[in-house]
Amino acid sequence: MKTIRFELNGEPVTAQVEPHHNVVELLQTMGLRGARESCGQGLCGCCTVLVDGLAVSGCLYFAAQLDGARVDTIERTEREGELDVVQQAFAECGAFQCGFCTPGFVLMTRQLLAHNPAPSEDEIRHYLSGNLCRCATYPEIIRAVQLAARIRKAGA
Amino acid sequence: MRPFELLEPSSLREALGLLDTADETVRPAGGGTALMLMMKAGVLEPSRLISLRRIEPAWAEISQSADAVEIGALATLSAIEHSGIVRSELPVIARTLRTLANVRVRNVATLGGNLAHADPHMDLPPVLIALGASVIIASRGAERELPVAELISGYYETTLASGELIVRVRVPKQFARFSAYRKITTRSADDWPALGVAVALDREGPVLREARIAVSAAFDRPLRLAAAEAVLRGASIDDEAVLIHAGDAAADEARPIADERGSAAYKRELIRVHVRRALRDALDAQGGTP
Predict the structure, then answer these.
(1) Contacts of A59 in chain B (CB under 8 A)
(2) d(CA B237, CA B234)
(3) A-B contacts at Cβ under 8 angstroms
(4) In the Cβ-directed half-sphere of B245, how many Cα atoms lie within 13 Å?
């Protein structure tokens, strides 16, 4: 067991980890279930978390390596108790069915719009090609990303 | 996953010391993405991982000299994809990275780890071979340079000795040479390739002086296709028939191995068609940007 300290959704935390624990396993022990291990191979995006502002697959990241990092998960809302622009757009467009993949899509969409505020449909498809939705709500997801981009632009 | 020990040395020197052991179950880790997959699959069971993420940041830097770009082995694939130096001097690498795995893997995986993994389906090795790149390999008290073509020796096999670590990759600036990479996927756009074809062409006026063609995902390692290269040497860039001829020569000389993304016969036909198209891409991409 190793003791690690990191910032989780803005709060300093301490955790005990074994070398073989991955980030999803650690977050689950801390009561956070938004990042889900699905494929376990970094392909599906359901376990997306942000480490020092970069999206990573929690299933392919050793928990011990979070020591000293800043970690953000879907549980961190931009404003207290309110959905952010991307979440609002996903709800508005019905960009999910079972919702299992949604946290990953929302986090990846935030990353995309932070880098590229007005992505083309091709750029959206390319950026999100590493996220899988087994309910196949892809058309709605693309519309949601486009809507979120428009809302962001209008609010800017 | 079998229990193991995770060490995080704070310098290259310390890391090389820890790796200097006859125990082959001690392995270095860059981003760890490929390692974790192999450990989850039970095909790699290290007793101890030497994580390189806390060694000096200089080993992740990207720099240039008059005739080469040097990329630290710990540079992440994302950092390379977005590097201004790489985009202006080696645009084919930036373009290749855009379709390598996905954003999250590229944010974590490192160049050195990618090359040392030696999966024959990877995108960067054929590109680096076509560009004439080499790796700088360090061990305790020594350093050597080796062409990428001589690094990968077989299916997940490299010529790295125990205790050796890739520390930098040196890619010659391409100047008048132009290049392209084609990744052919058969199941979905983001799948592993059924074939990868990288070409780099050196021309003098309308005449091709030299062509390098490197193919991956068809053999136990990325390989250059010498017969196809010979067809192009001295040919005119305006001669469309010579591109077809080169594709045929590539298909004739290649001995593809079947995998779950294509039979050997299918891969041979992919080679015929996509060597020709990659050559056309390179000719069309002259002066292009990613």
Answers:
(1) 36
(2) 9
(3) 74
(4) 13
A89 & A111 share domain: yes
Cβ atoms of B249 and B271 within 8 Å: the answer is no
Rounded mean pLDDT, A30-59: 96
Contact B126, B196 (CB under 8 A): yes
pLDDT at A79: 59
Residues B245 and B160 in one domain: no
- Considering only CB atoms, A130 lies closest to which of B33, B51, B104, namely B104
Q: Which residue of B has its CA nearest to A42?
A: B105
What CATH number is associated with residue A105?
A: 1.10.150.120
Cβ–Cβ contact B1 with A under 8 A: yes
Residue from the list B37, B51, B102 with its beta carbon closest to the beta carbon of A130: B102
Of A18, A55, A62, the CB nearest to B104: A55
DSSP A29-65: HTT--SS--SSSSSSS-TTEEEETTEEEEGGGSBGGG
- Confidence (pLDDT) at B282: 95
Domain boundary among B115, B144, B172: B172
Question: What's the confidence (pLDDT) of residue A78?
Answer: 62
Task: Please report whether residue A98 resides in a domain.
Answer: yes
Question: Do both B246 and B148 map to the same domain?
Answer: no
Contact (Cβ atoms closer than 8 angstroms) between residue A105 and residue A133: yes
A129 with B102: Cβ contact below 8 A: yes
Q: Which residue of A has its CA nearest to B37?
A: A41
* Partner residue opposite B36 with nearest CB, options A60, A64, A126: A60
In chain B, how long is the greatest CA-to-CA distance? 60
B201 is in which domain, residue-wise? Answer: 178-284
- The CATH code of the domain that includes B276 is 3.30.390.50
Burial of A56 (0-12, 13-18, 19+ CB in 10 A): buried
Cβ contact A19–B51 (<8 Å): no
Give yes or no: residues A64 and A112 share one domain: no
pLDDT along chain B (290 residues), means of 10: 92 97 94 95 95 97 98 98 97 95 97 97 98 98 97 97 96 93 90 96 92 98 98 94 97 97 97 97 68
Tally of domains in chain B: 2
Range of the domain at A105: 85-155
Touching check for B258 and chain A: CB below 8 Å? no
Q: Is A64 on the interface with B (CB under 8 A)?
A: yes
